[in-house]
Design a protein that fits this description.
Structural class: mainly alpha
Distance between the termini: 35 Å
Oligomer: single chain
Strand content: under 5%
Mean pLDDT: 82
Largest sheet: none
Amino acid sequence: MSRRAVGSRAPWRILCGVVALLYLFILGPIVITAAVSFNSVNQSKFPPIGFSLRWWHEAMVARWLDPLLFSVQLGLATSVIATVIGMPVAFALVRYRFPGRQLIAALSLGPLALPALVTGIALLQFLQVGGLGFLFGWPTLLIGHVIICTPFTVRCIAIGLAAMPDHMERAAASLGAPPVGVFRRVTLPLAKSGIFAGAVFAFIHSFTDYSVSLFLSRPGAQPITVTILGFLEYGFAPTLAAVAVITLFVPMVLILIVQRFFRIGDFIYGDGKS
């Protein structure tokens, strides 16, 4: 091979090496955690000592499954409510120009700029001062998660609406379709990828949040992230490694299901057919 050919391949090889290192950095901790969960001893050893499913069996008891189910239910409820709120907000911000539009945009996206820890403390103080401490648990967690997850739905839906060819809506209206019919038969089908992408991001953010949940949960109504954080006070055990892998699978399965039917990958990365 000539020296020129070797030189032309060098940038590609460097890029492949950098990408491989990035994947190793991202996936390495996950692989190590999964391996630790198969230890035969009650120690977080890597490489694992022996092989046992004992810790996976312990991860399937009510102590872990109840908060896991609680997190799934909370994430689904948050996703639905955040999407319902985000759709009209995104539609108004993209389609119309009106006084106060910039203020609404700042308020709808503000939670993305604020650390979730600040939001959690602010909500805690607000509820305590307002005499609403009796709501701690599911109601306050739902309120807090909707606040921090709505910006994801607004942003994703707004991107989907902005990418739509607006002449299709005008064409449908010119053919006599009422505004409701245009929205239901033209706008929604074209924007569905953005809508479901926003819903998925909202669920994942809710499912993995601990900053807000730490301040608004109560005993008996704790997401899995708060339960894991409390368990870490006693150290990192193989059981916790198994629980961590299970919590990783939940968002992955959701993404695969939604991607199978609604092609949110095309929304995020672009349509590979174009």
